[in-house]
Write a structure and sequence with these properties.
With about 160 residues, the protein is an alpha+beta fold. The protein is about 25% helix and about 35% strand. It has a domain of about 110 residues: Alpha-D-Glucose-1,6-Bisphosphate, Chain A, domain 4, CATH 3.30.530.20. A 7-stranded antiparallel beta sheet has the order 1-7-6-5-4-3-2, covered by helices on one side.
Length: about 160
């Protein structure tokens, strides 16, 4: 994992082994994922997110009307160690795709989940997805949301 200038990186320990954590992250994402009104994938959001597992799978949002929006294709599927998938909002131009890398590192009986979300410098500050926030403020707000998501995952995995 590289420390790109445009990466938003958050990490949190959860009370579960990497195998269980990876499975919860991917198989149960619709349970712990909390939509944020600032960061909606489509104008019709929020729907329910889901992973289509495996190296040829996708990360999607299933909208209330049953339509499926592909947020990104899975690029690396390496349970229980690593997951990489593309990221784009419906309003992104073709060259604005981002990437999310999630690593699952054992720490004793726990797992450190690290999320690195890259590609934000491709999205102009004036773009609706950025809300006019300067880079540092946007990254902080997006990072706070990612931290909230990991907190929800941790709460779900708490014994």
């Amino acid at each position: 994992m590289t420390a790109d200038a445009d990466a938003v990186i958050v990490a949190l320990r959860v009370a579960a082994a990497p195998e269980r954590t990876f499975a919860a992250f991917t198989d149960e994402v619709g349970v712990w994922w909390r939509p944020n009104p600032l960061f909606l994938a489509t104008p019709r959001s929020p729907g329910k997110v889901a992973f289509e597992p495996g190296p040829d799978g996708r990360f999607v949002e299933i909208l209330a009307d049953g339509k499926v929006f592909e947020i990104g294709r899975i690029r690396v599927w390496d349970p229980p160690h690593r997951l990489v998938f593309g990221w784009r909002f419906a309003t992104f131009a073709p060259d604005m795709d981002g990437e999310v890398e999630v690593t699952f590192t054992p720490v004793g009986a726990e797992t450190r989940v690290t999320v690195a979300h890259r590609g934000w410098l491709k999205v102009p500050q004036s773009h609706v997805a950025r809300h006019g926030f300067p880079d540092a403020l946007f990254q902080r707000r997006f990072g706070e949301w990612l931290q909230t998501l990991l907190g929800a995952l941790a709460a779900m995995l708490r014994p």
